[in-house]
Amino acid sequence: MTTNPGPPNDWSGFMPLSSADWALLDPSNSSDWLRSAPDLKRWEEAWLRGWTALDHQKPPQAAWATWLMLGGRGAGKTFAGAGWVTDQAAKPCRMALVGPTFHDVREVMIEGPSGLRAMAQAGNRVRWEGSRRRLVWDNGAEAYAFSAEDPDSLRGPQFHAAWADEFCAWPKASETLAMLRFGLRLGEDPRLVVTTTPRPTRALKVLMAEPGVVTTRAGTAANAGNLAPAFLATLEGLYGGTRLAAQELEGIVVETDGSLFRAEDLARCRGAPPAKFDRVVVAVDPPATARGDACGVVVAGRRDGRAYVLADRTARGLSPNGWARLAVAAAVDFDADALVAEANQGGDMVRTVLAQAAPPCPIKLVRASVGKRARAEPVAALYEQGRVVHCGAFPALEEELMGLGDGDLGHSPDRADALVWALSELMLGGGREPRLRVV
């Protein structure tokens, strides 16, 4: 737990006190204003905790629905999460505490030296009810403990807020996070805090790319004043300059060796479409079997040397006529200049079924002469250069892009393949001379 270093030099960095804490400063609330020992003690504890929290341990100033704190080992993630939950407990509410295992929730998030029981304030103490696996504060606030090993345990309960710790160590991360979010439905502004040392998992990459998620980072060195003096020096001597040090000490998401698309590039590529496009295409990656893989359908436009991803209409379980109609409908909706379709699997059949759906634009068949990775590399470079904009939230597409080429996807990347064809056509010499259009 962070210790009291003495009065700060910069008072602008204080953590805002809760409404309950500020109420103690209002003489109109009580004739015994700040005269009782418990109130004095509680106010002192809240005040000290506010200014002993380091900047990286305070919630972001920007609006957020999910605060994702990525930190190195010992960066003070538990202190940050427990401090935020304690602030929420200043008024009666229901919260969820989720860790990799129930043991982690109890021993780290609740009983640990920076956990919730250590954070408890005089006048609003907290007690553990083991039979119900919950913490209860004196004012009626309560927090229930859950293990990420059992996502179904989160079916049914509902909450005002939640703290998820060591998300990258969760055994069923995506499933558990989804169940937790379905339960965040109480109050006017349900929020989720996620604290974790990062690992390059699909679940983390998808979370980072979601709208409404604000990510903050802190290396172990940011909390050096509260760690054993030799801790950092020893680990830097052993692991400095390695990928392990970047991940475990600096809190950086270290991409896997095969990854082409970085979470950071995808997270910053969102924006609005321009009023006019030079060219718009619909790219189609047909399924290999009649009703097997999904049919990738991605719409993209080009304007002034930048590509704009406009829609992902990928669908699964369609017949050839079904996916052809789906692609043609996208071409009509976006007034496309061309339908670009991969023909490696279906050959001329692809052109035939698309033509039967009466497309409003020419059909262009493309064939892959190299592997998926080689095709995607120049497109990944466009993202790294900041020349691609996602005009909407496309989490499934972005997940496939981040898994493309590293063997960590688990299914055919139909959406990603379609996007690669679309941007290759628009940005890498595949298209005809542009003309100005309004959409």
From TrEMBL:
Signal among keywords: no
Species of provenance: Caulobacter flavus
Signal peptide limits: none
Protein name per its UniProtKB record: DNA-packaging protein
Transmembrane parts of this sequence: none
Alphabetically ordered keywords of this record: Viral release from host cell
InterPro entries: P-loop_NTPase, Terminase_6C
Pfam families: Terminase_6C, Terminase_6N
Domain Terminase large subunit gp17-like C-terminal: 283-425
Highest taxon, organism lineage: Bacteria
Organismal lineage: Bacteria, Pseudomonadati, Pseudomonadota, Alphaproteobacteria, Caulobacterales
